[in-house]
Structures are given as structure tokens and as C-alpha cells.
Specification:
The structure holds 2 protein chains of 2 kinds. Chain A is an alpha+beta fold. Chain A is 31% helix and 14% strand. Chain A starts with 6 loop residues before the first strand and ends in a 9-residue tail after the last helix. Chain B is built from 4 helices and 2 strands; from the N terminus they run αααββα. In chain B, helix 1 runs antiparallel to helix 2, helix 1 packs across helix 3 and helix 3 runs antiparallel to helix 4. Classes of the chains: A alpha+beta, B mainly alpha.
Chain lengths: 251, 129
């Protein structure tokens, strides 16, 4: 590390301390960085050496936990997988994820998002429950390929920050929750898609989406949430026209 | 100790005009071009119904500089609309699994675009022959 060239870069970070501030404002910090230094490491160095009150979420440092999502130069990114060398010479603007309320500095409110992913019945609902002794629910590789990418979501919420329709309607269930919904709906072992129908109908369901498509571009795990949302428009439309033909009663 | 006071940022009313959403806004705007072109076609059909004089006047209008320029703009809008339409297509359908593996979205887009171009070519050749 020591023999590597170090360069200085300016980070302009949106700060907001709820006890003192009425609104957020940018504060400038200078950081020495090396080629392999991520934005997250820069934030950690600021917190260690310059201002211990700077708040941000992080955990795994390797794009697995989904904690360090933030707006970097206006784009939703994971701070741990965004490198200062790509942002040089700066200054680099860093702000909390767009479309979410700011709790403090780079920390946003996640409660609504958590409620949404809880609401979609995020578990496999098998047709018949069988005891463990009866063995696994089998699945072919082709059946798995039908939903597999949707199971890669790390709940980082970058897709929500990329979605202008979520910005306009915070009740819109949004790309991430819809990807998780499709992860179960598309699973051959699951029979819960009927229960999940009410969540995809209406403006707060899939119909707020206008296929902007930036959610899929923002996704660091290539989940393609835009695909999940838009194929459920078809499901919602089918149900709208065909529900009268269904025999069984829906509560 | 809790000092929660979440700050809510307002969404810019002109978000669709920002650089980030420019491609999307142009795509949506191209739909207006498609609608206008539909109007031009309908006007032509209506002139046929009104008789040979009206149709001749319509054809004459088509060769005015304004109509030429309009059609150039509409052609650009139609092309943009067509290409982005097929780019969106794989996002709207379930993942296509062939031989146990998902077909890449680009393949679906290219196949559909190719089909559309073949159909267009067939119509143009049919109209000219």
C-alpha cells in the first residue's frame, strides 16, 4: 500500500443531523486514495480521521449484504463496489438513496420497503405440505432457470432509487418487492400466486410502472426487476378479465 | 435518545427532463409521433372516401416541403418507437427457457426486430409491385 501513488480527491457528502438540522446540506471532505480504494473505504476513512459523526450503513464490503447503497454522482450505486479511481478527478457528490426519507446523513428509512417485501408472502407455498421424511420438493434445472435470477436480490434498494414512479408514488410496491414476488410465483414448487394477486393489481401494484427500465440497469446483481414488474402486468390483466370465469371463490 | 426526524426530499417535477431519464422520455414522446402518423394515414383514407378530387389534394399536400419535413420527423419517431418497443419486449414476457437455459433478452429483441423488418420489407415490396 505504502509504495502506491496516493492521490487526493474531494467528496461532497450530503449531511443531515435530525437533532440539529432543518434540511440537508453538502459538506466537503478531502481524502487520499489509492487505486483499489472504494467509496465505502473513503467514507470509513473520513469517519475514522476527520468526522466521527458521519453516518452511513455498511456491512460486508463485497456487494453481498446490500447495506451501502447511496447516490454517487447522481447514480444509485453500492459504495463498496464503486471505486474512487473511476470517479477521479472529482469532486464526487454523495447523497443518500433518492426517493427515500433521510434518517441521518447517508442513512435512509427502510421501514416501508421491509413492509413491502414482507407483504408478498416471501416463502414457498407448496400445493401439499409433506413431512420432512417424505423428501425434497424436486425441481429440474429448467424449472429453476425460470426464476433463479430473481432470487439473487440483496435488498439494496438501488432499484427504488432509480425508479421515478416510486418517487412519485411511495406506495408503489416497486421493483425490488416485485422481483421477490416473481421469485416465488415463478417457482415450480410454489402455488401461492393467487394469494399474491392483490399485491400486483392497481396503481400501488404493478400499474405505477411505466417501463422506465432503469431499475434493472441500477441492479448490482442483474436481477432484472423490470422484467418481474412487467410480466406481472400481464398476470394482473389476465386476472382482471378471467376472474369471472374462475370457479373457486376468492375472499 | 431517539431523535428521529426523517427528512423527505421532494421529487423534481421535471424529473423526466433530466439527463438520467432522457432516453425514456424520448421513447415515450415517440409514441406521439406514431399517433400523428396514424392521423396522417386516417386523413388519407378519409380523402379516398370523399372522392378523387380530395384524394388528389391529399397526395399534393404530401409533396409540400412541410409534409416532407413532417414525414422525416415522423419516420425518426417511428424508428425510435419500433426499436425501443422490441427492446422492451423481453422485459414484458416470462423468462424464455429453451433446452434448460434462459434465452438472452438481446436474442429475443433481435429476433422480433428481424421479423418486423421482414414484414415491413414484404409490405413495401408488395406495395411497389
Amino acid at each position: 500500500m505504502a509504495d502506491q501513488a496516493r492521490h487526493a480527491i474531494e467528496l461532497q457528502i450530503l449531511r443531515y443531523r435530525p437533532a440539529q438540522d432543518d434540511e440537508p446540506y453538502f459538506v466537503s471532505y478531502k481524502v487520499d486514495y489509492t487505486d483499489e480504494m472504494s467509496v465505502l473505504e473513503a467514507l470509513q476513512s473520513i469517519k475514522d480521521d476527520q468526522d466521527g459523526s458521519l453516518s452511513f450503513r455498511w456491512s460486508c464490503r463485497m456487494a453481498v449484504c446490500g447495506s451501502c447503497g447511496m447516490m454517487i454522482e447522481g447514480e444509485p450505486k453500492l459504495a463498496c463496489s464503486t471505486f474512487l479511481r473511476d470517479l477521479a478527478p472529482g469532486p464526487v457528490r454523495i447523497a443518500p438513496l433518492e426517493n427515500f426519507p433521510i434518517e441521518r446523513d447517508l442513512v435512509v428509512t427502510v421501514a416501508d420497503f421491509v413492509k413491502k417485501i414482507e407483504s408478498i408472502y416471501p416463502f414457498i407455498m407448496p400445493k401439499e405440505k409433506k413431512p420432512v421424511e417424505a423428501g425434497e420438493y424436486l425441481q429440474t434445472p429448467a424449472q429453476m432457470a425460470a426464476y433463479e435470477p430473481f432470487s439473487d436480490c440483496i435488498n439494496c434498494m438501488l432499484c427504488y432509487a432509480a425508479c421515478p414512479q416510486f418517487g412519485a408514488n411511495p406506495d408503489f410496491i416497486g421493483p425490488g418487492a416485485m422481483a421477490l414476488l416473481q421469485r416465488y410465483n415463478g417457482d415450480s414448487r410454489d402455488t401461492g400466486s393467487r394469494e399474491r394477486l392483490d399485491l400486483i393489481h392497481g396503481e400501488d401494484g404493478v400499474w405505477s410502472c411505466t417501463a422506465v427500465g432503469l431499475c434493472s440497469e441500477a441492479c448490482p446483481k442483474l436481477v432484472d426487476p423490470a422484467n418481474a414488474v412487467n410480466q406481472n402486468k400481464t398476470n394482473s390483466a389476465f386476472d382482471f378479465f378471467l376472474r369471472a370465469l374462475r370457479k373457486e371463490h376468492r375472499p | 435518545m431517539s431523535e428521529r426526524k426523517p427528512y423527505i426530499r421532494r421529487q423534481d417535477r421535471l424529473w423526466w427532463a433530466s439527463r438520467r431519464y432522457r432516453a425514456y422520455t424520448l421513447r415515450e414522446l415517440s409514441g406521439v409521433g406514431v399517433a400523428v402518423y396514424g392521423g396522417v394515414i386516417l386523413a388519407g383514407l378519409y380523402s379516398v372516401r370523399r372522392g378523387p378530387d380530395a384524394y388528389a389534394a391529399f397526395v399534393e399536400w404530401l409533396s409540400t416541403p412541410f409534409a416532407m419535413a413532417l414525414h422525416l420527423v415522423l419516420l425518426a419517431a417511428m424508428l425510435l418507437h419500433g426499436i425501443t418497443w422490441f427492446q422492451t419486449l423481453p422485459k414484458t414476457m416470462p423468462r424464455l427457457i429453451v433446452g434448460g437455459e434462459a434465452v438472452p433478452q438481446k436474442t429475443i429483441t433481435n429476433a422480433a426486430l428481424g421479423m418486423a423488418m421482414l414484414c415491413t420489407l414484404a409490405v413495401v415490396i408488395g406495395a411497389l409491385s
